[in-house]
Amino acid sequence: MWKININDMGMTWYNKRCVPCCLLIGMLLCGACGNKEKTYDATGTFEATEVMVCAEQNGALLSLNVREGDNISMGQEVGLVDSTQIWLKIQQMGLTKEVYQSQKPDVEKQMASLRQQLSKAQKEQLRYKELVADGAAPGKMLDDATAQVLLLQRQLDALAASLRSQVSTLDAQISATGAQESQLYDQLAKCHVVTPISGTVLEKYVEQGEFVTIGKPLLKVADVENMYIRAYVTSAQLKTVKVGQKAKVYADYGDGQKKAYDGTVTWISSHSEFTPKTILTDDERADLVYAVKIAIHNDGFAKIGMYGEVEFLSEK
């Protein structure tokens, strides 16, 4: 039966028999929303291995041939710091080594004359020994010849020691110069800016022509192909999660849009921490949780800092 309710605000039409039906439908809908089950085991954000490429030498940046968003390979040269002074020092070290090398004495030539004198004195000694034995010469002549042999032998030994010392000193100087030259070559190599990993240029901090110093950041590179999500699990969940376990990772784009990835648990924290404020869990914020990393192979759609969900798969 239809009735009209007249009040100060106007008229309201209602059907007396339909009111219970509307209330019942609303209660059923609310109940359905409240009983929606969670389809994930943990949530977190996507991260990637990031490397800050810094200058390893002081000087003007002659080139930096990258832009933000460029994909670069490990070991690829992307820039060059002025290396003129280092190269000139290398040339100087090379000339210094040549000077030291030219100062090394020719041991055999310098000892040849003294050895010849010693050989002649030894022959004289042998001749006087035979003459004295035959009584044809006094013994003093043999003594003088023997003393001359001993004198020449000592002179030869002293000269040999002196020459060895000179050669050893010059060899040490040549080695020291060679070490300095190697250091300069190392510095020269560090003037070439190369990337330690393959990845994408996230940020570029300097431009060509700027003066850079050792340690100054030049650019940031991230391996966005091999990413991982850092999620958090409770101590109750920890007993069912282990390194190497397979998982399903969902990148959350909002409005219910998600993209699934196959993942593998690669790391579990050895100590607990309080739940980060950025992570939504069903437990209290003060509950202790353990961080875990689940690695994925990115197809280009997962982004650093994006929220995601993790479903740990049980072993069959």
Quick recap:
The protein contains 5 helices and 15 strands.
What characterizes the major β-sheet?
A: 6 strands, antiparallel, barrel
**Strand residues, percent:** 25-35%
Using only C-alpha atoms, the radius of gyration works out to 44 Å
Ranges where pLDDT stays below 50 over 5 or more residues in a row are: 1-35
Mean pLDDT: 85
Structural summary, described in words:
The chain is an alpha+beta fold. Helix content is 38%, strand content 34%. It contains five helices and 15 strands. The strands form three sheets. It has a six-stranded antiparallel β-barrel with strand order 3-10-14-12-11-15. Strands 7-6-4-9 form a four-stranded antiparallel sheet. A hairpin with a 2-residue loop joins strand 11 (246-254) and strand 12. Helix 2 (84-102) packs antiparallel against helix 4. The protein is elongated, with a radius of gyration of 44 Å. The two termini are 62 Å apart. The model is unreliable at 1-35 (pLDDT under 50).
List keywords for this structure.
316 residues, alpha+beta, six-stranded antiparallel barrel, four-stranded antiparallel β-sheet, 38% helix, 34% strand, elongated, disordered N terminus
Describe the SSE topology.
Blueprint (H helix, E strand, L loop, with lengths): L1 E6 L2 E6 L3 H16 L7 E13 L4 E6 L6 E2 L4 E5 L2 H19 L4 H28 L4 H52 L1 E3 L4 E6 L6 E2 L4 E18 H4 L7 E9 L2 E12 L4 E2 L13 E10 L9 E6 L4
Antiparallel strand pairs: 1-2, 3-10, 3-15, 4-6, 4-9, 5-8, 6-7, 8-10, 10-14, 11-12, 11-15, 12-14, 13-14
